[in-house]
Amino acid sequence: MMKKKNLSVLAIAVAIFVAAGPAMALPNCSTLPLTPLPPSPGNFNFCGALDTVYCSLIPVAGLVPEIAMFANLVMCETADINGAPIEEEPYVQPNGMLDGQYELGVIAAVLNNTGFNQNGLTHAATLAAFNTNFALLKTTIEDALAAVGYLPLVNMIAPHLINSLSYGLAGYAILGDENSLAALDALVGLLADIGVTPPDPEDFVTMGAWFAPNADADGDGCTNRVEYEAYAALGASTYVANALNPAVFPEGCGAEGEGEGEGEGEIPGQVVIIGPGTVEINARLELRAVTALNGTFTWLKDEEVCPDESGSSLVIERVTEADAGGYRVIVDTGGKALYTSPTFWVTVVPAGSLPLASGLGLAVLAGACALVGFAGIRRKK
Questions:
Q1: With the C-alpha atoms ordered 307, 297, 84, 111, is the resulting torsion angle positive or negative?
Q2: Residue 100's domain spans which residues?
Q3: N or C: which end of the chain has fewer CB within 10 A?
Q4: Are 114 and 128 within 8 A, CB to CB?
């Protein structure tokens, strides 16, 4: 049983933030928001919105420590939370394409180009879809928090959380594929537990014919997923540019069956690590690789191979300070490509440092946090 500390909410929040340490590859939360909220053409940046959510969750994590356990899932670098929802652990199922700079990055590129008009896809239609979805989600989140009396509290300790949540989720709604909509429906469906009617998926304006993983944004005959697998290793900007350029497509794909060739290297986004981002000394730590791939697993800590770890889970029975750092897992399917997770950061804190949940429980989680990928955080028993 963890010991309850007699600390204020903000003091706990500061303690958790300082424990993370500036050396970790985390968003710079010194100035919020990290991107204009709400955005306008020219400054759409879903990556910045997701990182603003992460930074805004710092004080909320002081109230509900389960949030800190899943914080890596919502950071731009690691977010892949729109696979099919599942009812049991690990709860969050990736779809194999990183979200912030990649899937949502294609949408941002169209939104930032006021003259975009290609393959039936236009800037005007995409902007209208975003504005409709943003307004619907913001109203829903505010209603949920107001219903349980926590809207003033959240606005006080995390003033950018509602806008950044609405921003990111509006992009997921635009993706419009079956899995993204099912995940979004499962997330907002949690609001029914606190007496708020969640929006119906049909209420969102979706554009899955262009932006879904198995759609073809530029009409070159190659799906977005195929182009992701070809170009993601070359970086997000290259993938986004090629996904919207009908003249560039992977070799063996496209209208004429040939293209500029595939990128080489480790492909991000096919595997994601889940587990506690903050753990006490002497506690048990388990990190799990979530992926649909079959192959062999290589775990790395601070880019050094963990020689005794070759399964889909990495377990440390008694954590020490030396176990803090960045973890990554590489999956080798036996083909020519290797698939790598984003870095998952683990912070080690003194025993008894993590506070107990203060009773906000589902109210804060469902009303503010669950909507961006915390579907697996359930009411405290």
A1: positive
A2: 16-265+356-372
A3: C
A4: no
pLDDT bracket for residue 344 (50, 70, 90): confident
Residue 199: cis peptide before it, omega within 30 degrees of 0: no
CA 180 to CA 325: how far, in whole Å?
31
Mean residue pLDDT across the chain: 76
Run of H or E residues at 278: strand 278-280
Q: How far is CA 274 from CA 14, 94, 96, in A?
A: 24, 11, 14
Judge whether 340 and 267 are in contact, CB under 8 Å.
yes
Which residues sit opposite 118 in a β-bridge? 121
Inside any domain, residue 48: yes
Count other C-beta atoms under 10 Å from residue 171's C-beta.
Answer: 28
User: Coil, strand, or helix at residue 353?
Assistant: coil
- The per-residue pLDDT for range 16-33, each reduced to its tens digit, is 333 333 334 578 888 999
Domain count, the chain: 1
Question: Is the residue at 328 inside a domain?
Answer: no
Rg (CA), the chain: 20
Pairing of strands 325-332, 296-301: antiparallel
- Contact between 281 and 349 under an 8 Å Cβ cutoff? The reply is yes
**Alpha-carbon torsion (280, 357, 187, 122), positive or negative:** negative
Does a structural domain hold residue 95?
Answer: yes
- pLDDT at residue 343 in the model: 80
Look at residue 93 and tell me if it is in a domain.
yes
Rounded Cα distance between 250 and 263, Å, is 9
Residue pLDDT, tens place only, 44-88: 999 999 999 888 877 666 555 555 555 666 788 878 878 766 555
C-alpha 280: how far from its chain's center? 24
Over residues 190-247, the pLDDT tens digits come to 666 556 677 887 889 999 999 999 899 999 889 998 899 889 888 999 999 999 999 9
pLDDT (mean) for 311-332:
91
Tokens of 93: 């199922």
Please state the pTM of the whole predicted model.
Answer: 0.71
CA angle 89–279–268, rounded 5-degree value: 60
User: What does the block give as tokens for 137?
Assistant: 């989600």
Task: Give the SS3 label for residue 77.
Answer: coil
Q: Which residue has the higher pLDDT, 340 or 361?
A: 340
